[in-house]
Amino acid sequence: MAGRRPGAVPLRPRRQPAFIDDYNTIDLHTINWQLETIPAAHFTVMPTGASDEGCIENYAKNPVHWVTVRPPQVARCWEKLGTWLRPPLLIERRLLDPDAGGLQVLEGRTRVGVLRGRLREHLHVAPEHRAWVGRP
Predict the structure, then answer these.
(1) What are the strands of the beta sheet with 32-39, ordered from one edge?
(2) Would 18 disulfide with which of 51, 75, 96, 133, CB 3.0-4.6 Å?
(3) Cα separation of 136 and 90, whole Å?
(4) By C-alpha distance, which of 107, 101, 115, 109 is closest to 40?
(5) What's the pTM value of the predicted model, to 2 decimals?
(6) Distance (Å, whole) CA 10 – CA 7
């Protein structure tokens, strides 16, 4: 499903100046978004913006907690399917730095942290996960 942006995922700008600084060089509306299947292993090293550096690892420290404070359907999805309820938003890192490779977490840091933590704690995790990926 190619398009300007994922229709099911509204782009709500965060009202945090640091987040805006991380992404102010790209126009999210000019990116082509596709729902893709990404191997779980790719999420173990995927960064997020500089303003949120370390937050994914903080969520990964206690994945059970971060699932239980969400609505019950989130926990059911992790337990039954080994994945998230809603796909996160990722972007190609070269949108920010032409020399960078791979993907970066734009929205969904908690979900990616939970995935990392569940992998480390040997909890049920699917081998692949769906994510909206923004590419030029």
Answers:
(1) 32-39, 128-135, 89-92, 103-107
(2) 51
(3) 12
(4) 115
(5) 0.84
(6) 7
Inter-residue contact 40 to 7 (CB < 8 Å): no
Residue 66 tokens, joined:
């971060």
3-state secondary structure of 20: helix
* DSSP per-residue string spanning 55-122: HHHHHHT-HHHHHHTS-HHHHHHHHHHSS-SSPPEEEEGGGT-TT--SEEEEE-HHHHHHHHHHHHTT
